[in-house]
Write a structure and sequence with these properties.
Radius of gyration: 21 Å
Shape: elongated
Number of strands: 3
CATH topology: Fusion Protein Consisting Of Minor Coat Protein, Glycine Rich Linker, Tola, And A His Tag, Chain: A, Domain 2
Number of domains: 1
Largest sheet: 3 strands, antiparallel
Length: 111
């Protein structure tokens, strides 16, 4: 691929800043959005819009739409539309994974 074309999976790289914005606004925020984008014959985005939004503030949605608008997809022919579901799940606590304990250093007393 040349000329700045991107695979659709590369979009996830482009929206990395949007979760950061979300966390700055509210670290406990969770929500979803579905974006639609119309593609031109060379994979360029001609238009993008949020068609469904659940619990995400406008600045986050605007960030997502802007990132999609600046993405180039693999050419699929003029008039192609793509649907892009995005889910920001609420952060959850992660339980520590048990690990094998290292033996105490020599000369250390066990209590």
């Amino acid at each position: 691929m040349g000329g700045g074309d991107r695979e659709p999976g590369a979009l996830s790289v482009g929206i990395e800043g949007c979760p950061v914005l979300r966390l700055r606004l509210d670290p406990q925020m969770s929500g979803r959005a579905t974006l639609m984008a119309g593609l031109g014959p060379r994979g360029e985005v001609l238009w993008a819009e949020a068609t469904r939004v659940e619990n995400l503030p406008r600045p986050v949605v605007a960030c997502l739409v802007a990132r999609v608008q600046h993405t180039r997809f693999t050419p699929r022919g003029a008039g192609t539309e793509v649907r892009i579901p995005i889910d920001f799940s609420r952060p959850t606590a992660v339980a520590p994974v048990p690990t094998k304990e290292a033996p105490p250093p020599a000369g250390t007393q066990m209590l």
